[in-house]
Amino acid sequence: MTDRFEAVVRHDAGTEVVDLTGVLDGDAAAAVTRAYEALPRDAERVLLNFAPMSFMNSSGIALVVELLAKARLDGRTVHATGLTEHYRHIFEITRLSDFMTIHADEASAVAEAAR
Amino acid sequence: MTVWTRTLRRVIGRSERAEPIAAPTPAQQTLDLGPTSSVEIAPNDPILAYLQGAPGPVDLDDLELSSPAVDALRADGVKLVVPLVSSGELIGTLNLGPRLSDQEYSTDDRRLLDSLAAQAAPALRVAQLVREQEAEARERQRIEQELQVAQLIQQHFLPTELPQPAGWSVEAHYRPARAVGGDFYDVVERPDGRLAFAIGDVTDKGVPAAMVMAATRSLLRSAGSEQLGPGQVLAQVNDLLHGDIPSRMFVTCLYGLLDPRSGEMRFANAGHNLPFVRSEAGAAELRATGMPLGLMPGMRYEETEHRLEPGQLLLLHSDGVTEAHAPDREMFGTPRLRAVVAAGAAERGGMLARVLSELSRFTGVGWEQEDDITLLSLRWEGEAAATVRSERSFPSRRGVEREALAWLAGVVSGSGLDQPRIENLKTAVAEAVMNAVEHGNAGDESLPVEVRVEARSGELLVGITDRGGGRTIPITETPDIEAKLRGEQTPRGWGLFLIQSLVDAVRESSDGSRHTVELVLRTDGGTTDD
């Protein structure tokens, strides 16, 4: 795990997967914006992969909320995977989990899209 | 006894008025009651004994008795005194001046007067008894009403619940005397986590004392919320009370601050009974002196510091305890109270019950309580003192919260917290450190953020201190995620919400230049109040 943040978009069977690596805090804003803009225009389904994320704070939560707001405007659904128990708990108390489906792993998230 | 004398003057035919009376009233047709004067007869005046035994009307001119009352009656023109005796008791006299004919009272006159006195005395006695009973009933009713008002006021201003900091047991007992004295007590948890405690006694009883008690308690609460020390609180309340308080009334009061985390205590005393500290070694009185409140303005109150240890108890009391009397009039006294406190009581709440039971045994059955009885105890239940696990200072630079977390992880391992709660604590601490860097120290790298980890009975505390002075944490509402997603609110604003959601309690304090946020996690499965 590294402190440097990266957001990399890749395609996985009908789902655009964004791998979030490193520390998701206020300094990650530009990288998150770039990643969102890098999504294909017709992408309907976005999966945020938090597995390589080492740390997230309240500024990082704000970035996720901002991305989610944009996606809703663009008619895209946002999913999440790779959350530790702790961050899953935080997604629940902040109610982020009410607006994005949380999957146990990438495979099940992608399989759901294929159905 | 007071006897009233009146000069009776026939009106009809003997009026001294210059003009005839056109239409005389019935009263004027018979008697004109002239000016009334009274003669005060002292209870030890020999005339009383003489009249009680006299066989009939007594002619004052023939009476050889050295009596101020007789002299006064003579001076008032009284010639004949007819004793009114009922059931062997002299209940009044009928006093007559000289006959209008200027002749002496005849034997027939005297017989007639004697007979009149014999019939009038019982009737007069009955009337006197009725009036006395009516007056007594009115007085009883007035006292009852006043007692009810005083009790209502007093009960309203006593706390219904006492704060119970983790590891402490705070208990009070208040029993008003029938006449309702002016005792009061109060315990308030301040925003910095310290307890403000007070006990006091207003001289006097009834409604006036209750009113002063209510005012004093409110002034203490108001002064106590201003981050003043105990001496300053008492000085301020003294100045406010002085001038408003009725003369000859004053208030004794002991006021203190206790930090339940460290056991450190400071108190000041305005002439109240001294408190006891009970430890394994026995009971010791803590001293602090000062004038009672309301007597003189501009008073200063010395402060006494003491550090309570786990297992120790602080007992405050009112003089209703120490000045209670046994049937033989022996007083309970401070030495006896000290001995009871020293003997101690192991179980929770046991000390107050023990003092009350000793008091009850001393005063005996059927004791009518003379004054209000108030007891207040603060007992540190913990067995071990707070231990500082570690503390470290960090520079105020962006991202330093992750350094703090790496250090914290090592400190809290083995604290008894499970992994999910450690993760919660880490996130909350990260947010608090970020706030300290960005808001408290305004990103000035030369200013430190100090993080201190303490363990104490049942709690793990992490204190984060910056140089942000007297700022306070705003009250946090749950962020409205729908509004944020609709773009109606900023996507930010999660920090304080996370802090408050992830730990059991958040406390803050400030000494003017430093600001500390304390995050508390219970390690014993109990609950913690903010």
Question: Mind explaining what this structure looks like?
Answer:
The complex is a heterodimer of chains A (115) and B (530). Chain A is an alpha/beta fold. Helix content of chain A is 37%, strand content 30%. Chain A has one domain: 2-Layer Sandwich (Transcription Regulator spoIIAA), CATH 3.30.750. Chain A contains 4 helices and 6 strands. In chain A, helix 1 (29-37) links the parallel strand 2 (15-24) and strand 3 (45-49). Chain B is α+β, with helices and mostly antiparallel strands. Chain B is built from 13 helices and 20 strands. Chain B has helices at 26-30, 46-53, 68-75, 107-156, 206-224, 230-241, 319-322, 334-343, 350-363, 400-412, 419-440, 481-485, 495-502; strands at residues 2-10, 31-40, 58-59, 80-86, 89-96, 168-175, 182-189, 195-202, 251-258, 264-270, 276-279, 282-285, 303-307, 313-317, 373-380, 387-395, 448-456, 459-466, 505-510, 515-522. In chain B, helix 5 (206-224) packs across helix 6 (230-241), helix 10 (400-412) packs antiparallel against helix 11 and helix 11 (419-440) packs antiparallel against helix 13. Chains A and B meet through helix 2 and helix 3 of A and helix 10, helix 11, helix 12 and helix 13 of B.
Rounded to an integer, what's the Rg of chain B over CA atoms? Answer: 39 Å
The percentage helix of chain B is 25-40%
Q: What kind of sheet is the major sheet of chain B?
A: 5 strands, antiparallel
Distinct helical segment count of chain A: 4
Going by helix content, strand content and strand pairing, the class of chain A is alpha/beta
Radius of gyration of chain A: 13 Å
Q: Structural class of the helices, strands and pairings of chain B?
A: alpha+beta
> How are the strands ordered across the major sheet of chain B?
6-15-14-11-12
Mean pLDDT of chain B: 85
